[in-house]
Every structure is written in C-alpha cells, then in structure tokens.
Amino acid sequence: MDFEKDRSAGYLANHMARLFAIALHKTIAPLGLAPAQFMTLLELWTEEGLTQRDLVLRLDVEQATMANTLARMERDGLITRKPHPEDRRSQSVWLTPRARALEKPAKSAAASVNGAALAGLSQAERDRFLQTMARIIANLRKSA
Questions:
Q1: Domain containing residue 75
Q2: I need a surface site. Which of 37, 55, 114, 140 has the fewest CB within 10 A?
C-alpha cells in the first residue's frame, strides 16, 4: 500500500493536533497557561492528589516531559506537591487557589477552540467524529 499524506490518519491527526495546540495556546496564553499545563490541569480539576506517574499514564507523555511541566506549574503557582500518604517515594499533586480559579475561563477558552474547529459539522457528525477519535486512541493504546 502506498503512503499518501492526505489519506493518512496519522498525518492528518498530527496536523490537526498541531493546529489545535496553536489555537489553544493563543486562547489560554492570556491566562498564563501553556497547552501542556492545561492538559495537566484538566486531569487535576477532575481528580486532585494524583502522582506524577498517574499523570504520565493518563496523558500519554514521557516522564521527563511531565516532570518539566509540573516544575513549571509549581513555579507559576498552579500546583503544590505533598508526600504521597501511601508511598513516601512519590508526591501527590494538588491545585492552588489560583489554578482552581482558572478552571472556568480555561475550559471556556478550550470550548471556543473546539467550536471553531467543528464549525459546519452537524451534531451527529461531531458525535461520530469524537467517538471515532476515542476508538482510535483506544486502539493505539492497546498496540503501544
């Protein structure tokens, strides 16, 4: 089978992800956030007290990448780290009041990017697209 970039799921998904990241960066930068911080905050807004390893597994990023992201977030006053109650070698990550205050405006900014990206698609097309992406992510996680 020949490779055609315009028919390659990987190429198109990567291109789309870069464009999403650029648009997200523009909308959340005024809040003092970077895309990697936003993705981490999404997990912590759902469940605080996660470890760095938990975040690595949930976000499918490298340990070093997450370590740098968390260091920057701590420096920026978004998180604090405390010894994990069950594993003294680990630290749990907790949101600061500043990070909690950013939840609504940051999610609103991300929703506006999603809205612009999905403009012109019917609700059924949006639902089908999101379901298909979730299945592809699951497939890739299984094969990793």
A1: 5-109
A2: 140
